[in-house]
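User: I'm putting together a teaching handout on how multi-component assemblies are represented. Below are the sequence lines for each component of a complex, exactly as they appear in our records. Could you produce the 3D structure of the whole assembly as structure tokens, so the students can see both representations side by side? Please keep the chain order the same as the input.
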Amino acid sequence: MNYSDDSRILLSGQREGQISRFRFWVMLAIPLAAILFQVYVPLFFQFLGYLEMPLLVVVYFALMRRSQVYGLMVGALVGLAQDSLSKNPLGMFGISKTLVGYFAASVGVRFDVDNVLLRAFLAFFFFVFHQFFYWVMARSLLAQQMTFGIQRTLILGLLNAVVAVFLFHFLDKLRESV
Amino acid sequence: MDTFLNRYRNPTVLLLVIFAQLLLLAFQVKNDQDVRMIRVWTVSAVTPFARVVEGLRGGGTGFVRNYILLHDTHEENRRLQAEVDRLKLENNFLKNELNTADRAKALAVFQSHTPSKTLAANVIGTGAGSNSKVVFVDRGSAAGVQRGMAVVTPDGIVGKVIAAYPTASEVLLITDPDFAAGVLSQKTLVRGTLKGLGTPMCKVDYVPPEEKLEPGDWLYTSGDDRVFPRGLPVGVVKVVRPGQPFQEIFVEPSGMQRGLEDVLILIEDVHQVIPNEPLASQPVYLSPPVPPDDLQASAPHLAAGTDADKLRSQYKVIGDAQNHKFGEGGVGEKPANFNLKVNQVGPALPPVNPANRVGPALPPANPANNVGQALPPGNNTRPSTKAASKPSAPGQPPATPSDDVAQRPHSE
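Assistant: Of course. Below is the structure of the complete assembly, with chains in the same order as your input.
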């Protein structure tokens, strides 16, 4: 793994952080692959259904691009695509992931997102935030009587954080070299 | 504006994207009543403003109506007050009409039950004197009214005729100071003389102190004055005071309690027994009227009593007696003999309604039984007048002839 040279997490300024750039096919294929993974792999490996691969992809692109508009757009598109493949009305995952992309990009502006621990924590945090916000919207907008298991959510958050570390390291390989 | 958008570009874009997806959600999602959320949200967002606007409009309109146009309220109030006054008058008029109808019913019932021959009359005026208790009735000598006849209502005696004119009569009320009549107490049969005082109350004179008379006792006419027949209610004793040489007894007359509009003039008097209970003040039961269907069903029977029906029946009996059928004979054939005497000719006429009887043509065997149904069995032990105890033959006038009425002396 290639980490930043210094061990600082908080950046001193926005210009200090570098904006990662990706090829177009990467920006198209990675989210699509994540969505396909979300809908296809659990058919064979049910326990993998707890992985929120589209969410992790959105977090990664938002963090690395350090652009809030870019982050929310990626989140909105991925979320709507995920909604279109689910039984939920269009917009449930879209709104949640839009907010995740926006806040993740906001975090990426201030923090050194190449730090592994920070990546793991952000993946954990945004997973919990995504699950909680989705629960809130499902109850308020859809009047669904969903339960929010905090312990289960935290455990799945940890699991997704671990997976996110390796996923982010893999996606780092796809960045364009400056 | 451009600076503002550039500065808050990211939050603005975020809000726009979120809002767009919310709209997308709202288009898809329906609530539990199958209404799309976009409609629910739109209505929920619009109706508060509409409510505010409507409240402002209604408040403004109400302000204009209640304050600026208040002068119309005063005019409307006057109009409604006039309407209320008119309805009050109409209500009183209808009440009087109803009261008159009740009195007419009571008079009819009393007329049908009393053995005396009566004549209904209406009070058409009062005497001119301020202290005189005199009224005029619309029946006079042309109707058979004579001076000295008693005037009563179903509730009691009212007065007596002091002058009979051709079309009207003058009646001296029992409250007039010049009025006097013999009375008898119901319980103790104490005799006295009723006198008017010029007030609504009357006085009973000539009752010795040893005679027992209590407030609440009913007084009836004794018949001693030869004006009022025995047994008519007079009134109830209100005050009894000891005095020398006679007690002071004040009576409230019962004959004028319901007003004085319709009265009965006793053309021929029949003495009655004094009942144990006052009958005049008790409510009179009237059976419900005959339904219209029954009237129609009984119409043929009533039609059989007409002259034409009698004539037709008579001809039919004559024809049957001679084996002659009307309308079947040829020209030149001998007609039926209509001078033939046949015993049974025509159906029997329907019985005459007793209420419509003019006089006591068929008085009952015991007139005491005709007074009312509340008479106890022991009532026959009371002394009764000659006319009451002596039954008349059917078809003959009662024992008190009308000549006696004409010849009886005036009490004044």
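A couple of points students might notice: Confidence is low (pLDDT under 50) at residues 1-6 of chain A. Residues 116-140 of chain A form the longest helix (25 residues).
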